[in-house]
Amino acid sequence: MAEDFGRDIGAAERMVREWQDRAAEKAEKFTRLQQQVENIAVTESSRDGAIRVTVASSGMLQDLQLADNADNRPMARLGADIMRLVQQAQAKIPGQMQQAVEDTVGMGDSAAQHVLDQARRHFPEPPPEEEPPARGGRNEIRTPVEDAAQPPRRPQPPQQSPGRRRPDDFDDEDFGNGSFLR
Q1: What is the 3-state secondary structure (H, E, C) of the chain?
Q2: pTM over 0.85
Q3: Of 23, 39, 53, 137, whose CB neighbour count within 10 A is largest?
Q4: Does 129 have pLDDT greater than 90?
């Protein structure tokens, strides 16, 4: 009977050592995954090379470079082009993260799958590129047009709330309406 007890303890010790080894190996793989993900950066450029953006694995803009010819476009279009490039770069992050997962922990790990699902949710494919309407290079401000059929409204004087007393209604018996400096 003592012999069986020794075998059971030996088996338990081996099982604990194997579990510790697997845990240490998994921790080392996730450390490598974290390092690879932190090093992910995606760069996108406009067709004419006037705009270049780089985003980190977090999706944050790391770098924005505008060439001299970038100012040839209207400001609204420049802003839209920058945002489109940022979205295009962000959309590539999940693919690069997937490659990092495959290279380190493997696609079978549920925690890694969760990380990839979150990346896909936060960085979806950008909307299709739309050409903005030609505007002749001016910035326009549009104001609402008032309806000519309605007469203009007169401003209404502010109304006093019924519960407030006006300053000249104070009942100050100490000094009356005169100065206290007599």
Answers
A1: CHHHHHHHHHHHHHHHHHHHHHHHHHHHHHHHHHHHHHCCEEEEECCCCCEEEEEECCCCEEEEEECHHHHHCCHHHHHHHHHHHHHHHHHCHHHHHHHHHHHCCCCCCHHHHHHHHHHHHHCCCCCCCCCCCCCCCCCCCCCCCCCCCCCCCCCCCCCCCCCCCCHHHCCCCCCCCCCCCC
A2: no
A3: 53
A4: no
Which residues, in sequence order, are CB contacts of 93 under 8 Å at separation 6+? 40, 42, 55, 57, 59, 119, 123
Residue 56 CB partners (closer than 8 Å, separation 6+): 40, 41, 62
Confidence of residue 135 (pLDDT cuts 50, 70, 90): low
- β-partners of residue 65 are 52
Superfamily assignment of 11-122 in CATH? Answer: Nucleoid-associated protein YbaB-like domain (3.30.1310.10)
In percent, the amount of the chain with pLDDT more than 70 equals 66
Residues in contact with 20: Cβ distance below 8 Å, sequence separation at least 6, in sequence order: none
Of 144, 164, 136, residue with least CA distance to 73: 136
Among all chains, which residue has been given the structure tokens 């839209």?
Answer: 80
Instruction: Provide the residue type at 24 as one letter.
Output: A
